User: What shape does this take?
Amino acid sequence: MGARRQITGFSNPTVKFLRSLREKKHRKASGRFLAEGLRLLTDARESGHLPEVLVMAEGRDPHPLLAALEADVLAAGGEVIETSDEILGKITGKDNPQAVAGAFAEFDTSLGSIEHGSAKIWLVAQALRDPGNLGTMLRTGDAVGAGGLILIDDCADPFSVEAVRASMGAVFTQRIAQARWEEFLPWLRSGAGQLVAASLREAVDYRTAPYAAPCFLMVGNESRGLPEAYELACDLRVTMPMKGRADSLNAAVAGAVLAYEALAHLGD
Amino acid sequence: MGARRQITGFSNPTVKFLRSLREKKHRKASGRFLAEGLRLLTDARESGHLPEVLVMAEGRDPHPLLAALEADVLAAGGEVIETSDEILGKITGKDNPQAVAGAFAEFDTSLGSIEHGSAKIWLVAQALRDPGNLGTMLRTGDAVGAGGLILIDDCADPFSVEAVRASMGAVFTQRIAQARWEEFLPWLRSGAGQLVAASLREAVDYRTAPYAAPCFLMVGNESRGLPEAYELACDLRVTMPMKGRADSLNAAVAGAVLAYEALAHLGD
Assistant: This one.
């Protein structure tokens, strides 16, 4: 059985630890990350992920899902902490914090954790810098039934508070892998998989392209797009109409339009 | 001819005025907004919008597009200001500011500025709260050749620095209108137009739906979606597959998937 206690001081070491998880270096050092809100924590629980530390506001309204969460965390040997709204706000960095937050162990993000054929669609992002875009891609992946999101080269941290928030819980349901391009390409070629790039170069119309499962849909960095060498290594380059002045879409939007198109071709 | 001068002090009234445009109340009071970056300002210029005040960093690299912008601003009677990187950073709120920023007059955002049939696709957002989502929808609108974005009820400010930035210049090329639902619906019905909602209720598959131009594609608030009454007032409710745990997409993503689908049906 886990422990249950009340914390009233800002300088409490657990409070300091939880707050520190807003910074990447502390997440990396501890291998822990923060998620907030009853809905997100319930999604996590129903996907088999329980927080090691659960923090709740003292004045919160009772809720059966919160009670279930609390019981499961204690049964799993975790810690349940009650504290003030103020301290919870300090932890999550929000003025109006959700009534509950949790610290989770980070998952295995090696390519080895992914089986090529276990899903028809995979999303791949290269040097994606915006945590909101990253979380949005996880959310889209969940919606199209993708297996997960593979992050190539230097991307935003998928376990940042912003990415977790934007994922709307999909951080717990989608597989996440992180790799350099030099590791990713041999890994991909070691199994089945069509690598598809959203591209402006000599490319096929995205509506009529011959998508094939398992299909790895890759988008590039927000300002630079994909390096040419990466595009050339793809099995398929597809392009979306650009009718206006701009020559590109938001990266998460491009990934989503492509993912929904691939879903329509590859079916259920 | 406009004026040209150098500013070295943080307390200069023009610097204070430009900084104040990061806040909505000051934008409303002055009817001005801020855009930054040579690319954005060049998009603006090529779309017929010149800043009334152009601010440039002293140590910037010379650039023909910047020289052209400067000449046009002066010719139009505007003001060109040279200042330090530090002051430019204060104005734009960024540590590494772009080398140039400008203050523009806000546009007419009344429904009267929009002609129903002047484009095949229009995007409509209801109570959209996130300025990044709003800017992303403008950018998507530009990409699909939409006429513009109609903002219903209390949305984020399309002239906020974040929305302008996320629009990647589309704030200058897309029409923007702001209206309450009670004004919007009679306006819409006063001309041609099919109102389409992204919906979870009894709805048609978004791939096979009978889109008709001019097509007004509406998405709802990030957490609550569209009010039921608004959906029921639509000519068409369409739904996208949701294969995972979540029951919705990011609002800007939903708008984009729908917009690209409508574009494929309505053609060029």
